[in-house]
Structure formats: structure tokens, C-alpha cells
Amino acid sequence: MLLLVLTGLAWMLQIMSTMKLLLNYGIELSSFIGLTMLMIPFIVSIIIPFVTFIAIIFVYNKLIADNEITVMMASGLSPRQIAKPALIMAGILTALHLLLNLWLVPMTQSQFYSTQWNLRYGLAHLKLQESAFTQLTDGLVVYVDKVSGHDLSQVMLSDMRDKKTSITIFAEKGKLVSTTRGLSIVMTNGALQTNGDTMTTGTFDSFDMDLNVSDKDESNIFKVRRVPTLTLINSVLDAPSEKQHKMILSELSSRFLGPIMNLMLAAICLTILLRTSLLRRRASFAPAFAVACMAIAMSIFMSASNMIGSLTELILLALALIVALVGILFVLCKK
Predict the structure, then answer these.
(1) What's the CA gap between 60 and 53, in Å, rounded?
(2) Could you tell me the pTM of the whole model?
């Protein structure tokens, strides 16, 4: 229930943050909703450890408040037996988290960025009106007499994005094409005029112009989150820069070691609550102390993941997590 509620809230926040796509680019509502739904696996992968912790602290603190833990221990159940249901749940969520991190999140993130780019700058987004001037971006205006799919007739294009040189093109026919660079328009049987320091005019049989309506800075960003896990592992030693090398190691740490935090937070919560419940005077500070320990553990893990600079450090972090988890479970199960 917590997972559904928190995922829904985070999804609504994602919808609000990407609302400009709907308003500025004229995207259809169904396409917009489909785009934001691609973020759900990533959202779930972030909140699973916190959901695990909240669920455990809520249920076990209530059991302690109702003296049910005391009764169970008095009847002969050990802390290990009492904690077993929570640890099983944490183990299932750990497996789910690992599946999300290694496969589903990279796949959906790749689709998200690809779909987002197509909706912003692809042919699906670009809708030219007949007998009307359409501003594709600042300084770039296109007039088309007739539109048939991606085929255009009687095209006039004015490009004034370069303040020093303006270009005006007239063509009998044109065709919109999508390339890896973005949108291009191929025009035939036309004339071209450039105005700068000198004026140049000429005619052409065929002219291919890159419209460059996409954000170059955005397209050059290395989005490690959408890279498949196997590709990411293979590129550890072949990263083109030190910055990307650290980003890859940090992402691998999050994908492989992040799920362990489900068990870690569960073990921390159970150890604090069950061990303090054995005290002669019940420790009312236990839930707050458990929350503080959870925050410290997550902060240390996230900081360590972002500071990893080599495979050796990644392995050391993994060993440290395993040792810490085993130690906490030992304290929890100790009679």
C-alpha cells in the first residue's frame, strides 16, 4: 500500500515537472501520459528502501505498543523468529529492486529519453499548417502552401538564427526527414539568398538543410541511467573521460548495491525496535533513533557511491555493506 501511494505521489510530481512538454510543444495528452509512465520503474527503484523501512517500523512499533512483542517473547519466540516475516518481505523487495535496477529501469529510461526527444524535436511533434507561417524555433520560420504527410509543396524558409547572416530559401517541393542530428528538410527546384557582409543568390536542384531545432547541450549530456547494465559493465575500462568513468562506477554501485539497502534498513529497524523492547523500561525513543540511523545509513551509502573512483573502491564498498549487514543481523538474532 505504501509503495502504491508513494509511487502515485511521485508520479504526479513528475507529471507537474514535465507539464511544459504538454504546453509548449502541443503534445497529445495520451503521448504525454505514456511518457511520464516510463518514469514509474525509476521512481519505484528509489523509494523501495524507504517503503521497506516505513512498513517495518509502523507494524513492529504498533506490536510493541500493544505489548504483543512482549507476549511473543514470553511464549518462547526469539527475536530472530519475530523478525523473520519482515526479513522475508525485505528479501522479496530486494530481489524486485535488483530486477528493476539491472533491467527494467535502464530499458524504460532509454525509452523515456528517446520518446521525449521525438516528442520535442521529431517528426511526430512537427506539425506544419498549410498556407501559414510556422515558427519552428527562434529565428526559424517556414511557410508551406500544401502539406501531405512529410511531403511539402511551395516552401519558403527564413533562417535568421545567425545574427550576422540570414538565409531565405524558396523551393517548389520539400520533404521532412528525421536523422540522428535531428530534423532536416530536403528541398528541390529552388532558389537561395543569403544576406551578410555580402548578398549571395543562387539556384539549386536539391538542397538539404539541417533545421537544428533540438537542444545541443541536452543531446550531449551523458545519461548513464539509460545504458544497459551489460554495456555499462563493459564500458568501465573504456570510459572516454575520468568524469564518465566515475559516473559509470557510481551507477553500477547504485544498481548492484542499492538493493542491499532494503535488507540493511530492515535489519537496522528490527534490531533497534526488538532489542529496546527487551529493556525493563520501554524505550520510547526507539522509533526516532531508528529513523536517525536510517538517515545516517542512507547518507553514508549515497555519499560513498558518489565518491567511488575505481573498481577496487567499488568492491570495498560492497564488502563493507555485506560485513555491516551480517553484523547487524548477528546482533538481532543473538539470544
Answers:
(1) 11
(2) 0.74
